[in-house]
């Protein structure tokens, strides 16, 4: 039976053995929704794939530094990933709202900025837009507000039709526009997931860096990973989706969605631990 992932580049095949040679100096950073968790009709229903949680526990036990970089608030990452209950996340670095928020699980130190002034007005504008597309909904993230159209009758049409309104609203209130998989997000901070990835790289100074993502918001992290590759070993793992082919084109390892990511992570953990392959 073929594996639910494909090694696209030579870096993919070499990366597990490189990590095995110094796991305690490896940074493994992940997007949450669509990568560690399956996409759900309602964002609050997302949960981490249990096989990924198991793999992260095994990798963390070998000393790998785990980070989650998400557009969600840190509070949401903690709650939906069950970070407080998972050994793989006990020492994780959680970077929410594209890196504007940070929580170090090992120490409990947190940095949560105050929401910008324009968010409340932008939320009211998005609620008016959402009313024209039954099934869509607005999510208040504190530092950002998002319009989800996945559950609209014709999500592709809705996603396209609301773009001008999203960009006009962002411009009016001084916010940053972030398109995603059937979602438009307006946020106060201009930081990107590339900035968020750079922070733990500077902290940990790892010779090996992994980033796994699935969506347009992850492209900045993949760009940063390309720059990191000039001086460190890197691996770009993509949770493939027909909704974001441009992300798949950046993969060293292309996985069949979050379940493929889980299978690849467990294979990585097998190599790092030096044990027999484990089926998932």
Can you give a write-up of this model?
With 280 residues, the protein is α/β, with parallel strands linked by helices. Helices cover 38% and strands 21% of the residues. The chain has a 9-stranded mixed sheet, sandwiched between helices. Strands 7-8-10-9 form a 4-stranded antiparallel sheet, with helices on one face. Residues 275-280 have low confidence and may be disordered.
Overall pLDDT level: 94
Report how far apart the termini are: 13 Å
Helix content: 25-40%
**What is the rounded Rg?**
18 Å
Assembly context of the chains: single chain
Largest sheet: 9 strands, mixed
Poorly predicted runs are: 275-280
Strand order of the largest sheet: 1-13-12-11-2-3-4-5-6
**Derived structural class:** alpha/beta
**Approximate strand percentage:** 15-25%
Order of helices and strands: EHEHEHEEEHEEHHEEHEHEHEH
Overall number of strands = 13
Number of helices: 10
Q: What's the shape?
A: globular
How is the topology of this model organized?
Layout: E1 5-7, H1 10-21, E2 26-30, H2 50-61, E3 65-69, H3 74-81, E4 93-96, E5 101-104, E6 110-111, H4 118-130, E7 137-140, E8 144-148, H5 155-161, H6 163-173, E9 176-180, E10 183-187, H7 193-204, E11 208-213, H8 219-228, E12 233-239, H9 245-248, E13 253-255, H10 257-273
Parallel strand pairs: 2-3, 2-11, 3-4, 11-12, 12-13
Antiparallel strand pairs: 1-13, 4-5, 5-6, 7-8, 8-10, 9-10
Helix pairs in contact: 1-10, 2-10, 4-6, 7-8
């Amino acid at each position: 039976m073929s594996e639910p992932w494909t090694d696209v580049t030579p870096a993919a095949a070499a990366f597990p053995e490189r990590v095995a040679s110094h796991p305690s100096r490896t940074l493994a950073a992940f997007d949450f929704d669509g990568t560690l968790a399956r996409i759900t009709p309602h964002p609050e229903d997302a949960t981490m794939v249990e096989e990924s949680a198991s793999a992260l526990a095994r990798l963390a036990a070998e000393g790998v530094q785990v980070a989650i970089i998400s557009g969600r608030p840190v509070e949401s990452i903690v709650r939906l990933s069950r970070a407080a209950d998972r050994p793989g996340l006990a020492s994780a670095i959680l970077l929410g709202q594209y890196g504007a928020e940070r929580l170090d699980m090992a120490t409990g130190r947190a940095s949560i900025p105050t929401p910008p002034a324009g968010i409340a007005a932008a939320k009211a504008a998005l609620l008016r837009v959402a009313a024209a597309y039954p099934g869509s909904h607005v999510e208040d993230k504190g530092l950002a507000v998002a319009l989800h159209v996945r559950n609209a009758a014709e999500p592709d049409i809705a996603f396209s039709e609301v773009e001008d309104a999203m960009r006009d609203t962002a411009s009016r209130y001084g916010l940053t526009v972030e398109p995603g998989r059937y979602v438009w997000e307006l946020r106060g901070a201009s930081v990107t997931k590339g900035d968020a990835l750079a922070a733990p790289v500077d902290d940990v100074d790892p010779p090996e860096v992994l980033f796994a993502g699935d969506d347009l918001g992850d492209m900045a992290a993949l760009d940063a990973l390309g720059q990191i590759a000039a001086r460190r070993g890197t691996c770009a793992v993509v949770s493939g989706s027909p909704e974001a082919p441009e992300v798949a084109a950046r993969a060293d390892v292309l996985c069949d969605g979050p379940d493929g990511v889980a299978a690849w992570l467990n294979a990585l953990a097998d190599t790092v631990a030096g044990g027999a392959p484990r089926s998932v």
